[in-house]
Amino acid sequence: MKNKIQEGQIYNSEEISIVHHTGSNKQTCFETNFIESKSSFNLLFLLSSHIHLEADDCETQFLFKKNEYILHYSFEESKAKLWSDHQELLKYLQIQIKYQYIVNLFNPQKNKESSEMLEQMTKNNFIFLHKQTPPLMTVEMHIILKEIIESSKKGMMQKLFVEAKIMKLLLLIFEQFAEKDHSENQSKLHIIIKKYIDENYSRNLRINDLSRELGINENKIRKEFKKYYHSTIVDYVSELRMLKAKKLVVNKDIMIKEIAIDCGYDYVQNFSRAFKKRFGLSPEKLRNA
């Protein structure tokens, strides 16, 4: 059974409903309500400025700017109210997609990546409602929405057209969030590098190992670390090893050879040389001092 036809509805099927609200109706030009069906994904693209949103399942009011959007999963049927400030016409496009349609599309039982993506969607990890900056529509998203709104296709051709455009929108959203995650990781790159070194300095750690483990260019790793910690990675690793060695050396129950290996040195001679250079005397002399 098909969904009830809503005002401004430009497409409606068992799985997908699209509503384009233009503010042309005098009764709803500045304020309107919309329903999120049970077990559905809702893409809401805000096409005018200063749009407020108040939902039944959330105690907070949200204010959106023009060209922002959200992808929200609704577990239960809920109603949301939208209204605009400054007497500007209320404009938005809502695409509602049934959960089962996405499941059939992703086939999570046969693909781990699809399963993880679906889980992120149902946990609303693709939404910025509780952060300061909601995602902005890209140029490609604008083009797709325009094509959906202006399409004159009917019947099966319309169904295929709409579904293809929705899949493209989802792909763009996932790519946008992936880029955002990458950008955030890049801003914290020095922290990631240092954490990795702190956890692995005792083994035979090489820059190319670090590069391969983190998937980051060796030169970038060196530059980022030096920029934030004013030390080369080699010097930092050596300092960590020596500080650890100094603590262990005073314990006469541990052989010097064991300490060398525990601190990442394959040869005792190299360990003793580095130790003497750092502290001015050999491990044996420090132990017996």
TrEMBL record:
State whether keyword DNA-binding applies. yes
Q: Any idea which UniProt keywords this protein has? A: DNA-binding, Transcription, Transcription regulation
Isomerase in keyword set: no
Chain ranges passing through the membrane: none
The organism's superkingdom is given as Bacteria
- Residues covered by the HTH araC/xylS-type domain: 191-289
Please identify the protein, giving its name as recorded: AraC family transcriptional regulator
